[in-house]
Each structure stands twice: as structure tokens, then as C-alpha cells.
Design brief:
The complex is a heterodimer of chains A (about 260) and B (about 280). Chain A has 8 helices and 9 strands. Chain A is an alpha/beta fold and about 260 residues long. In chain A, the strands form 2 sheets. Chain A has a 6-stranded mixed β-sheet with strand order 5-6-7-3-8-9, sandwiched between helices. Chain A has a 3-stranded antiparallel β-sheet with strand order 2-1-4, covered by helices on one side. In chain A, helix 2 (about 100-110) packs across helix 3. Chain B is mainly α and about 280 residues long. Chain B contains 10 helices and no strands. Chain B has helices at about 5-40, 50-60, 65-95, 100-115, 115-125, 130-155, 160-170, 175-210, 220-230, 235-265. Classes of the chains: A alpha/beta (about 260), B mainly alpha (about 280). Chains A and B meet through helix 2 of A and helix 7 and helix 8 of B.
Chain lengths: ~260, ~280
């Protein structure tokens, strides 16, 4: 076995010098480096088409790196069982399955029987507050509720890493704020590690402990901005000077990396 | 979430349903009444145009003969349809697993489909000279098979890209993908094909019987029509014809109901729900 360089403590996953070129010749990422820490909420922002989604797809194993290294934490004695939850831009629910069966899907694909999974699935549905809707088909739910089911499905495997690709982009602002807060509660309660892609600077700063800014294609990390003040995130935080200051810094980094002159 | 109240939805539903059923029924009754009246007033002979009452009489009088023929036609249709479902779905699944198989065999499925059945039937009759019923069965199968195959092939390919990623993320096996993703995705397409195939199987069974001129004890409704024509028993001819129509209508509604029953809760083509 080749010697693996040990990951620094608490690193869940690390991308080292990753390049990604698609079959059509487009280079999405070049010399991309990113480290995700245990229990951290990382927001990724960038202009559209900068490769934000590609980063998540590489981490999830839905796409392969062209070169570079992707290192995962591999606890001693455990199998290579690295569980990732993925929340797509769309809720991506199976329309022919009820809410309960949608959330059960990841466990079903892992070969768990319904009886064995019952408790876990019920818990996941309760976590997103949809216990009353377990027997309902997705078409009967609102957009925000569908997204909550999608989150429950991603969490049902107790993932070491939760990847979210602009999950709230299609929702109205009211619903988006509510889901932001619900997500933060889940993150705190279950000590999740989250990588959250968004094109909204405000959402990125509100949610993340750090905001990683990507340049336009080929994507590189151009800024990694810490959001201090790890106290409660609420309306007061949204109105705070620190919040607006950070948003401003992220916006500037974004504009600079996109090559847009700031007026 | 706003749901229509029970009262509102049930009244509009009943209204729509009664109107939709009543109008065609009234028109049908009017046509039959006019037909009956014209035949009686003009004194048209039954061997030219029998009156509806005369046809009904033939239905009752010749019921044992007609029911036997109906049974043969029905048996042929349903067996051919079942074989078409097994063959069509089976081949579609194989195509979805192997692109090479698809590009090598699909053109021949199309050739089989575009060649008129009436031209193929005599040929099959030559090969299977003394097994008339088998000829009918094969002919009905040929026409019923294609809509199921082509629809299911399209359906299996219509899997949503995100759903595909989801299954890849959780390391689904090929079987799991087929069972939990591609199958359910293809289901509405399959049912659309099944509705067409059900009636095509009936058409195939009838056309083949005309083409091979089946005679003997194992004959269906088409032979009854031919034979009644030769003997100038025109009311019985009409009676057989009405049974074919009734069978076609029944097949359509059975397929439709079956599709509604399976897809109803989740698929928009079922037309229920509030979205």
C-alpha cells in the first residue's frame, strides 16, 4: 500500500491541486484546493458556471478528477464506508413514492429492510418536521416541504459530510429564510459537516462559518473568508454590522475574482 | 397547502362525469331510434339492412354460436396481448442494458411493424398450415408487440438526470436501478403503449382471421361475419360486428382503469389532484 500522507486532524475531506476538464474540453477547475473540517459549515460562492457544483460532484464521487488528489478521512478499523448526503438544486424526489419511502430510499439501496430502517426513517422525517406528511405523495407538497424531504433523505444515512448544491435557490425568500434557520438548527444539533453551494452572498454569509469564493472558470479558490461571531444566527445577526461587513467583503472578493470592475 | 373542499370537488366531478356520459348515450340512442324508424317505414329487407331490434334478436337467438366465436377471439386477443407485454417489456429491458442489442434489433422490430399485417398473415398461414389458431395468435402478437416495445424503450430512457445521480451516490446496483428507478419511470409510457396494444391485438386477431379465412370449430367473430355474409344472414353479421365493437370498448376501459389504478396516486396523466 502506498504511504498516505495523514490528513490533518479533523479534516473530513481534502482536495489537493485538483484539475477537472470535461470531455468537451471545458476546464471547470484548475489547481483547486479545499479542505473541509469536521463539524464546519462551509459556504461556496462564485459566479454561475464557475465550477461550484463540480466541486460537490467530485467530492460525492459523481464525477472523477482529471488530476490531483481527493483525500477522505478513513477511520482505522472501519471499512471504506464514507457516507455522503447530497441535496440537489431540485428536490429530486421519486414522484411514485410517498414521503416515507423517499426518505427510506438510501437505506433501501443499502439493503436495509423496512422494519430495520423504520426508526431511523421516522427520526429523519421528524428532524425536518414532516411527521404528519409521511404518507403523502410528493406532488401534494409545497416546494419548501419537498426540499425538507430531500434534506431528510440526505440525513437518513447519518452522513459524515452533507453536500448541498443551491438547494433553496428556487424558493421564495420567506421559505428560504425559514429553511436556512432550520438547517442551522440541524447542523448544531447533529454536529453536521456541511458544504453549501449558493450564488447568494447573503445566504452564504448567514449560513457559513467560512465562505469560500471561487473565481470564474476555470474555478480556483480566490478568497476564504471567515465569518466570526459564532453566536446565534437570527434576525439580529442579519441586521448586525458584522454581517453586512462580511457580505461586503465577500461581494468584493467575488467581483474581483470574476474580473468585474467594481463601480 | 390549500385543498379543495370535498363538497366543491365532488359536485363538479359528478357534473362533469354525468354530462360526459349522458351526451354520447343520448346521441347513440337517437341514431339507433332513427335507424329503426327508417328501416320500418321504408320496409328495408333485413338482408340489406337489418333493424337494430332484428340485430338484437339475432344476438339472442344465435347466442351459443356467437359466444363461442367471441370466446375464441377474446382468448386470442388476451393471450397475444400477454405475450406482447412479456416480449415487449423483456426486449425493452434488454435494450436498456445493451445498446448494441438495441441498435442491432430495433430496426427489425420497426420492419415488422411497418409491414401490413394483412400481407404477412397468408405467409404465416403457409408455414403453420394446420394450426389456424396459432396463426391468429402470432398475427395479433405482431401488431400488439410494437407499441409496448417502443413505448417501454422510451420510458426506460426517460430517467431524470438527478435521479440517476442520486442512485449513483448511494451505489445502487443495476438491478436496483431497474427496479426502483427505471421501471417506475417507464410505467406511464408502458401504460400508454398497453392501451394502444390492447386494441391492436383485437384488430390483429380479426384481420388475421379474415386474411387466412379460418374455418372449423376454432373460429372467431371474423369468421362468423364471413360465414354469415355467404349465407346472407345479415342480422347475425351485424350481431357479430357489434360484439367486436363491444369487446374493443371493454378492452379500452379495462386498460384505462388498470392504468388509473396503478398510476393514479402519483402521476399527472391520471388527472386527479390539485396541481
Amino acid at each position: 500500500m502506498p504511504e498516505r500522507k495523514p490528513l490533518s486532524a479533523n479534516t473530513v475531506i481534502e482536495l489537493v491541486d485538483v484539475d477537472k476538464t470535461f470531455a468537451n474540453g471545458t476546464t471547470a477547475l484548475r489547481s483547486f484546493n479545499l479542505r473541509l473540517q469536521q463539524g464546519e459549515f462551509t459556504s461556496l460562492v462564485g459566479t454561475s458556471g464557475c465550477g461550484k457544483s463540480t466541486v460537490l460532484r467530485l467530492i460525492a464521487g459523481l464525477s472523477r478528477t482529471t488530476s490531483g488528489e481527493l483525500r477522505r478521512e478513513q477511520p482505522e478499523g472501519e471499512s471504506s464506508d464514507f457516507r455522503i448526503g447530497f441535496v440537489f438544486q431540485e428536490p429530486t424526489l421519486l414522484p411514485w413514492s410517498r414521503v416515507w419511502d423517499n426518505v427510506y430510499l438510501p437505506l433501501r439501496l443499502r439493503g436495509q429492510s423496512k422494519a430495520a430502517a423504520r426508526e431511523t426513517v421516522n427520526q429523519a422525517i421528524e428532524m425536518v418536521g414532516l411527521a404528519d406528511f409521511a404518507r403523502v405523495y410528493p406532488r401534494e407538497l409545497s416546494g419548501g416541504m419537498k426540499m425538507r424531504v430531500s434534506i431528510a433523505r440526505a440525513l437518513v444515512t447519518r452522513p459524515q459530510l452533507l453536500l448541498m448544491d443551491e438547494p433553496f435557490g428556487a424558493l421564495d425568500e420567506q421559505t428560504r429564510f425559514a429553511l436556512n434557520d432550520q438547517l442551522l438548527r440541524l447542523w448544531q444539533q447533529y454536529q453536521l459537516t456541511i458544504a453549501f453551494v449558493t450564488h447568494s452572498v447573503y445566504e452564504a454569509v448567514y449560513l457559513g462559518q467560512r465562505v469560500v469564493v471561487l473565481s470564474s472558470r476555470p474555478g480556483r479558490v480566490t478568497a476564504d473568508i471567515e465569518v466570526s461571531g459564532d453566536g446565534q444566527r437570527d434576525g439580529a445577526f442579519r441586521r448586525s454590522g458584522h454581517y453586512h461587513e462580511t457580505c461586503e467583503r465577500v461581494s468584493q472578493a467575488l467581483a474581483a475574482s470574476a474580473g468585474v470592475a467594481t463601480a | 397547502m390549500t385543498l379543495p373542499t370535498n363538497h366543491q370537488s365532488s359536485t363538479s366531478f359528478v357534473e362533469r362525469r354525468t354530462v360526459r356520459i349522458a351526451i354520447p348515450v343520448v346521441i347513440g340512442l337517437a341514431v339507433i331510434a332513427t335507424w329503426e324508424a327508417v328501416v320500418r317505414i321504408k320496409g328495408i329487407e333485413p338482408y340489406l339492412l337489418p333493424s337494430p331490434s332484428r340485430i338484437a334478436q339475432a344476438l339472442v337467438e344465435d347466442r351459443s354460436l356467437l359466444l363461442a366465436a367471441l370466446w375464441v377471439t377474446l382468448k386470442t386477443t388476451m393471450l397475444a396481448l400477454s405475450m406482447a407485454v412479456v416480449g415487449g417489456v423483456g426486449l425493452a429491458v434488454l435494450f436498456s442494458l445493451s445498446r448494441i442489442l438495441e441498435i442491432s434489433l430495433f430496426p427489425y422490430a420497426i420492419v415488422l411493424q411497418v409491414t401490413p399485417l394483412i400481407a404477412i398473415a397468408p405467409l404465416i398461414n403457409v408455414w403453420l398450415y394446420d394450426q389456424v389458431w396459432l396463426v391468429l395468435l402470432i398475427c395479433a402478437w405482431i401488431v400488439a408487440f410494437f407499441p409496448i416495445l417502443s413505448n417501454t424503450v422510451v420510458g426506460l430512457k426517460s430517467v431524470d438526470e438527478n435521479h440517476r445521480d442520486l442512485f449513483r451516490l448511494y451505489g445502487a446496483s443495476a438491478w436496483q436501478r431497474l427496479r426502483f428507478l427505471m421501471g417506475p419511470t417507464a410505467l406511464p409510457y408502458f401504460f400508454a403503449g398497453l392501451k394502444i396494444a390492447g386494441n391492436l391485438a383485437l384488430v390483429g386477431a380479426i384481420v388475421a382471421e379474415f386474411a387466412v379465412g379460418a374455418a372449423g370449430e376454432q373460429t372467431g367473430l371474423a369468421s362468423t361475419i364471413l360465414e354469415s355474409g355467404f349465407r346472407l344472414e345479415i342480422p347475425r353479421m351485424f350481431a357479430a360486428l357489434s360484439l367486436i365493437s363491444a369487446t374493443g370498448i371493454c378492452i379500452y376501459f379495462v386498460m384505462h382503469g388498470f392504468s388509473q389504478w396503478i398510476l393514479g396516486p402519483w402521476h399527472s396523466s391520471a388527472g386527479k389532484g390539485d396541481q
